[in-house]
Structure to design on (106 residues):
């Protein structure tokens, strides 16, 4: 998203900042989810993996909701379309990367 935001910056600074905020609201909770969830490995720790996955998902949803609330409350000149565009673009990028990995492993 950073290259897209740099190109957008030339046309509209507010849209570029909103785009990066949308990407950050998606990426930061997912990063914490990934770090928390994949702490354990192996079949012997299946219960710990399950618990950490559920707790990681809960934390991710809470942090994403908190991110949306903070952005809408404290960013005065938010370009809402660019903000949601950044969020959705990161979601689609995640699906594309996961799909290409799945396609390669089949």
């Amino acid at each position: 998203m950073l290259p897209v935001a740099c190109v957008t910056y030339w046309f509209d600074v507010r849209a570029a900042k909103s785009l990066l905020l949308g990407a950050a609201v998606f990426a930061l909770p997912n990063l914490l989810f990934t770090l928390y969830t994949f702490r354990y490995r192996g079949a012997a720790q299946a219960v710990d993996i399950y618990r950490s996955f559920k707790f990681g998902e809960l934390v991710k949803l809470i942090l994403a909701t908190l991110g949306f609330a903070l952005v809408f409350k404290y960013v005065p000149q938010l370009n809402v379309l660019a903000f949601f565009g950044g969020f959705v673009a990161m979601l689609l990028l995640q699906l594309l990367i996961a799909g290409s990995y799945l396609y390669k492993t089949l």
Summary: The helical segments are 2-11, 13-37, 46-74, 80-105. The chain has one domain: 2-105.
